[in-house]
User: Which sequence fits this backbone?
């Protein structure tokens, strides 16, 4: 499946509307900054790599009306639109990273608005293509962690629906399936918006991979029963010390995995590593509307008017992470992601 792509005419960002899954497979075409920001904010498109691609491509389509402007006017509008897109979801680093990359390309490109707009489209396409290659690379590296018949527990959705390719946390699963290793997946339902049961279970079942859905609160009992061989999750931001921000509910999984001596792996593109953020304490955690917790998608599950605590992410301390799988290699503790892009714990 192609979660994010250019429209056939090339004038829009074409995405799968993940709000409709698993009941219906719908696609949306985004042409304005308002449509791009709304799609990201309302989780029509989600997953750190996918929203990075959408943000980059969305910047291009939103700037199309200004392509005939002079250089200064185009750059000013690019900065304004880019700033608006980059801050829609604050926790995932990929979104501001992708926008900043395009703005840097625009500033470095000579010529008028038309030349700059062409350069931005080229750069956004490169971000998209690199994301697909990144997923494959993570899958090829991570499959070495899976034995024949491995039982993988995952949380939220870090598969094809979260990227432009075959996913991050699920990439090793897809590669293992290609090689006939007979892996199976336990997917936490992932409250309150059920990205695990709605999205992960849907895409794995579409691919013919055995998947079992469980409530988040059941994962520790599953581990105690000896039915989990390893945990693989994605990430929205990885701090310089290896602390990991991911979908809320990841941290208790890591604690339970440590207690049961089960390896806990994080899979993410290198663009998710943020060496400018020293530790998880410095990561801004997005808090979403209480209605998501109280109502979800259908009938109310909590009384109207009661207070709700609804952080979208939590932080897993580096000491609970067995290894981090990136497209640049497999990293083991102690983690130290330096600004120059080198990590002294590289092991592969």
Assistant:
């Amino acid at each position: 499946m192609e979660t994010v792509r250019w429209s056939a005419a090339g004038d829009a960002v074409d995405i799968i509307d993940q709000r409709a899954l698993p009941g219906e497979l719908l696609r949306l075409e985004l042409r304005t900054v308002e449509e791009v920001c709304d799609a990201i904010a309302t989780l029509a498109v989600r997953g750190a790599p996918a929203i990075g691609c959408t943000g980059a491509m969305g910047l291009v389509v939103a700037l199309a009306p200004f392509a005939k402007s002079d250089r200064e006017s185009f750059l000013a509008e690019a900065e304004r639109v880019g700033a608006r897109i980059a801050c829609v979801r604050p926790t995932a680093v990929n979104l501001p990273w992708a926008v900043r990359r395009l703005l840097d390309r625009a500033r470095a490109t000579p010529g008028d608005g038309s030349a700059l707009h062409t350069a931005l489209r080229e750069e956004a396409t490169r971000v998209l293509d690199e994301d697909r290659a990144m997923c494959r690379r993570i899958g090829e590296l991570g499959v070495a962690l899976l034995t024949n018949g491995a039982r993988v527990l995952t949380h939220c959705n870090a598969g094809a629906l979260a990227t432009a390719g075959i996913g991050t946390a699920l990439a090793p699963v897809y590669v293992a399936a290609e090689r006939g290793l007979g892996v199976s997946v336990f997917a936490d339902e992932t409250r309150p918006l059920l990205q695990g049961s709605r999205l992960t279970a849907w895409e794995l079942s579409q691919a013919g991979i055995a998947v079992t859905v469980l409530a988040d609160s059941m994962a520790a009992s599953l581990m105690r029963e000896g039915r989990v061989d390893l945990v693989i999750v994605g990430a929205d931001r990885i701090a310089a010390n290896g602390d990991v921000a991911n979908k809320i509910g990841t941290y208790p999984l890591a604690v339970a995995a440590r207690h049961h001596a089960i390896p806990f792996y994080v899979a993410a593109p290198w663009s998710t590593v943020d060496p400018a953020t020293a530790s998880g304490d410095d990561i801004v955690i997005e808090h979403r509307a209480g209605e998501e917790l109280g109502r979800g998608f259908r009938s109310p599950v909590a009384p109207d008017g009661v207070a709700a605590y609804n952080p979208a992410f939590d932080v897993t301390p580096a000491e609970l992470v067995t290894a981090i799988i990136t497209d640049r290699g497999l990293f083991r503790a102690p983690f130290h992601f330096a600004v120059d892009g080198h990590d002294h714990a590289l092991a592969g």
User: Anything to note?
Assistant: The chain has two domains: 4-136, 142-332. The radius of gyration is 20 Å.
